Amino acid sequence: MFNKALAEFFGTFILVFFGVGSAVLMGAHIGFHGIAIAFGLSIVAAAYGLGAISGAHLNPAVSLGFVASGRMTAADFVTYCIAQIAGGIAAAGVIYVIATGKADYAIASDGLGQNGFGAGYNGGYSMMAALVFEFVATFLFVTVILGATRADAPAGFAGLAIGLTLAGIHLVGIDVTGVSVNPARSIGPAVLAGGQAIADLWLFIAAPLAGGLVAGLFHAAGLTRNED
């Protein structure tokens, strides 16, 4: 389990470093499309680099989906979550250190790639819009992951399918919430950014976890019907 936890730590570090790092350090140059690609590529890198060790969940919502589908124990879920959140915070810290190397960077005004909603954040979408997006996007994301990692799924393509799905989700929703679908991705930057990022954080924990849970339950029900 130690090796699995370490893989989840480093895998989530990769996800946040690539994705959030692209937003903070290169967002003005690559735009939303570039950020979406960076998040997708981070999953591909982590899945093929670390997936054989831990399954490369990199996300408490994904791990909860595995628990709900009967493919993970509650005890392992807790261990994975701790490692994932620690990896997200560590990566956000490294990004912050790099960002402060630019003379005109200030976390209060420039942010740290944190998720949010409402007036003053990206498109100014409402709380309800943010809730719906995060729930639905996470449900779809975890559904793809559970399907792509089944024993009878085509071998060798899971990382690519999952990475492309995350990139697609970002292309839909960056302007809405910055896209979380992952509590660990949201917690890391929020802890350092503070303020409104902390106030909004509940949504980026609750909605993804709910989406992952429902995806896991649907997956379990589908497998049961197939067996019948």
From TrEMBL:
TM spans (from-to): 7-28, 34-56, 77-99, 125-148, 160-181, 201-223
SUPFAM superfamilies, A to Z: Aquaporin-like
Alphabetized UniProt keyword annotations: Cell membrane, Membrane, Transmembrane, Transmembrane helix, Transport
GO molecular function list: water channel activity
Subcellular location as annotated: Cell membrane
Pfam families membership: MIP
Major location category of this protein: membrane
Membrane-topology annotation of the record: Multi-pass membrane protein
Superkingdom assignment: Bacteria
GO cellular component: a single term: plasma membrane
Family from the record: Belongs to the MIP/aquaporin (TC 1.A.8) family.
Entry protein name: Aquaporin Z
